[in-house]
Fold this sequence. Notes:
The chain is an all-beta fold and about 300 residues long. The chain starts with a strand and ends with a strand. The strands form 7 sheets. The protein has a 4-stranded antiparallel sheet with strand order 1-28-27-26, with no helix packed on it. A 4-stranded antiparallel sheet has the order 2-3-4-5, with no helix packed on it. Strands 6-7-8-9 form a 4-stranded antiparallel sheet, with no helix packed on it. Helices cover about 0% and strands about 55% of the residues.
Amino acid sequence: xxxxxxxxxxxxxxxxxxxxxxxxxxxxxxxxxxxxxxxxxxxxxxxxxxxxxxxxxxxxxxxxxxxxxxxxxxxxxxxxxxxxxxxxxxxxxxxxxxxxxxxxxxxxxxxxxxxxxxxxxxxxxxxxxxxxxxxxxxxxxxxxxxxxxxxxxxxxxxxxxxxxxxxxxxxxxxxxxxxxxxxxxxxxxxxxxxxxxxxxxxxxxxxxxxxxxxxxxxxxxxxxxxxxxxxxxxxxxxxxxxxxxxxxxxxxxxxxxxxxxxxxxxxxxxxxxxxxxxxxxxxxxxxxxxxxxxxxxxxxxxx
Length: 303
């Protein structure tokens, strides 16, 4: 039994919000989109704190690497802004990509940062020195999303070419390209135990892949339109998906069954435009949308 209650609505953005990210500091959320600044929010009292800094173009990606006092912000221009929490200022800009940056992730064990771009490549940076180490040419088209396996053995890249590209994290050599989706792959998430990988696509399908054999386990016609975000509950065997169809769905991670749909049709005061990103903060699920709002949902799961 899953019960859902909306406990807060964070407003203030004047344009669509494309991404949200939890800070390394508990109770803090960052958001960015088609606005002129990156915004900081308190999740303790669900309130606006401040605009962190201005941005010159739309924010598509935010990343806060564990163990580093840094905030990385990927822009439509291709730049990645680096904000230092100790110095309380932008300390540098990673200038490499000439086209939009869509995702940023880090590899803790290697102290490396991965930046995915519309140019079809992923740049690899040293988190200690912020120097460029490698560029991986993944696809002839956009690299839209990144997921690093929790055991840090592999990394998956979702691309506009409809493929999921799997690479070895030790030396960034390609292992396999997983075919199956018919349109661009917008979202990826490894299971917490690294045994499976979930991909979500513009084709509205969720696909579950076995990470040992790279075989397709199952395909779920999950939404009506593009699946923009996938997020695992931090401690329970469930995951959530969010879509351009304005719904959030909660699924069983071990049986792949649909357990809850959060939508206006189901009586929830949900977003009324595309839902672009979701993150879990304990038992709370946080969502953001083209409707300029951030919503905080209290999710109670019994049994």
